[in-house]
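thread from #wetlab-drylab

HS: before we spend reagent money on co-crystallization trials with nicotinamide-adenine-dinucleotide, can we at least see a predicted complex? here's what I'd submit
DV: go for it
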Amino acid sequence: MTKIINGKEISAYLKNKIKDEVAALKQNNINVGLAVIMVGNNPASKVYVANKEKACEQLGIISYKYELPEDTTNEQLLELIQKLNSDNNVNGILCQLPLPNHLDEKLIINSINPEKDVDAFHPQNVGKIMIGDYDYLPCTPAGVIEMLNYENIDITSKNCVVIGRSNIVGKPMAMLLLHNNGTVTICHSKTKNLKEICRSADILVAAIGKPRFVTADMVKPGAVVIDVGINRCEDGKLCGDVDFENVQNVASAITPVPGGVGPMTIALLMKNTVTAAKKMNFNK
Ligand code: NAD
């Protein structure tokens, strides 16, 4: 029987633990606060931001929402981030990506205080992940590791193949699998023999951004398949990067879309925010 890995269930389990931590901090008169900045009207970003706000509310985290118009300048955004950097009520700062094209994403990410960088996109935090000495892990790859742990899927010595090499998902995903003693291969748009490499995977992670890209013939029987993709399919519904219907007949365990990695990402954001609050109050 193929195990359908339930991201809703696992994220609920994690969020319950986080909720208790938030309540315990409150007992010490410490409120946990997350600032969420959104620039423009990207419909997907609006949904993500609304889900993050909802999670904050569920867990007792105070969310400070900043919805800025599409024509916001770099200077205006930097000014807001500087203000939030020095605001003691704000433990975490999240600037929802992608930003409108006229804004300098690198400049904006680099301006966030690394101690408040709960997305772990700042170069300082990225570097710390590389050397395995980190405070924050990027939410999506960390969510995948949490899922594997929850399901008692051991990564040690497994052949792990990650399809995708973005800074947000593919690269940190590969690094976390490596930290967990996997033997890791990263594939990307220029990879040759993709199918053969994927078929060598005990754990296959798809982060491509192409609907149903990973087909059953690319999967080794019994492999664990993690689908990070969130795509809008022809029928308007959400689907992943994996052809779930057919791959589930080959895999030993697989994540669905929706209800897989997505909810984990939000839970890990909440976890990072609580870590930030603890660091700000106890690690001075
Ligand atoms: P991206 O576009 O930055 O990167 C896609 C990667 O796929 C690239 O590195 C590219 O080399 C690779 N790729 C493209 N075509 C390929 C091909 N034909 N063969 C092999 N590799 C190929 O995307 P991203 O930001 O890494 O996101 C990937 C997917 O994950 C998207 O669907 C995105 O919506 C989703 N996502 C989900 C979450 C979540 O919370 N579940 C979070 C972030 C991103």
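DV: The chain has two domains: 29-113, 139-261.
HS: ok that's useful, forwarding to the group
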